[in-house]
# Entry
Amino acid sequence: SVSLLEQAENELRRRYLVVRAFPNFKNVDDATLHRLAQDAIERRYRKGAFLSRLDEPLDRLWLIARGSCELRDSEGYQMVVQRPDGVGFLHLLAQHTEGVEVRALEDVVALELPTNTVVNAFLESPSLVAAGVRRLATFLRHLRRGLPAEPGTTPPPLGTMPPQRLSVVERALALRDQSKIIAAMDFDAIYNL
# Structure
């Protein structure tokens, strides 16, 4: 017979391995992954079910372990998210406070993470920030239809950014422009400043 403590440890280990399997987390330190796995909850959604609605605050994020979802934000942007991607991470990095609508396009298994857990992990883990910046850069390259831009193509309209406090990533990038010494540093060193 397996004790309740052993069951809890096995479940935590399983969630840790699921988080570790996501490519965006391959270079993230073990302590950060363990923290994320501790607060993760496995959720199952039937086709057509809503993981989140536009009128709800973005207080949870999802790692899609199986299936696919359609995401729509308040600005009308739509995309399909499937394994091995997450839902809500880019909105969190961009500090969007509005909710997003996420609907399961098929049966979905996802790890749900509280945004507070993810924000704290970003603040404490340079490797997670680096992974987030890499993911954001990949996403922006996709939006621009590849970089450098093809001759004769125009980038999609991005609109104007509302005035907001700078995020951790934006502050780190702004530091890079302040001197040649800082520009020569790797991102982890800049983050630690």
The two ends are 51 Å apart (CA to CA). Residues 126-143 form the longest helix (18 residues). Residues 20 and 30 are 9 Å apart (CA to CA).
